[in-house]
Amino acid sequence: MSGLLKRALYEDEPPSIILATPSSSFDSSYEWINVSPDVKKLADFNRTFTGYIVSHTRMFRSIGLEHLTSSHVVIEIGSSYGVASNLMAKKAKMVVGVETSKECIEKARKDFAQVTNLRFELMDILLMPKQAAEIVKYSLTNKPADDLIVFLDIGGDRDVTSLLSTIAFIERSLTPRIIVVKSLKLCRTHPRVKNQPTVDIYSTEEKENVCSVRHFVHPLKYPEKLSLRSGRMICRYENYDLKGCFKHRDPFNLGGGTCELDHEECHACGELGHRARECKHEESRRLR
């Protein structure tokens, strides 16, 4: 399992979700550290990993600037026009901004062309995780991994499951010393519980589902499979897209036609009654 999500739930304070790396017992391995009225962090006693999840940009940037030193390498995922990346480049050894918008990348490269320790890369970490990892390895040449800090702000339109899986991928593949995540949606997703210092917000089964996802793949990247039961190809959109096959689920036929593929059979294990996204079969874990 790549990571656990714990939440600091304090009656008089804004909610914060804390990302932590499990070692043995939660209570004996970690301690709460009060950073500010807005943010709590959870760190293990060995200080090998610390995670923050906050809901607004001000605290997102504040935490970043507070922890940066001249020895740090920074990866900012969701760098937009590069304003925050430029501020961090004034303190860090190297900053790499990663963004999905071509317009943002072009403007950032133009505006900050004179900043020698700052560069921008156009990619979607959800679709190109291996390339993202290669960028980090290039930036960390001859540097220890604990000098890496990752900032993640991939926008409010991403679903929570995708965001959690992205965090798990970053922790597992990039092994940062610190990760800072800005997500209002993630902060508001889970209910508050009064008088409880920590609450495990995911069951063991749900954690395994999130953390077993190797990386995100477009539905059509999966191999075609024929359903022997129906004699039709199994719909990959129905199995791997978060909302399923649009044409199949569209009652008003707004998609311009119906999907003739098989929507009943799991693409991963071939059984009926569930999609590959929810499949518990070992083969599905390998595929994902």
UniProtKB/TrEMBL annotation:
Ranges for domain CCHC-type: 266-280
Pfam family, one: Methyltransf_31
InterPro entries linked: Methyltranfer_dom, SAM-dependent_MTases_sf, Znf_CCHC
Keywords: Metal-binding, Zinc, Zinc-finger
Molecular function via GO: nucleic acid binding; zinc ion binding
Keyword RNA-binding: no
Stretches of the chain forming a coiled coil according to its record: none
Keyword Plastid assigned: no
Protein name: CCHC-type domain-containing protein
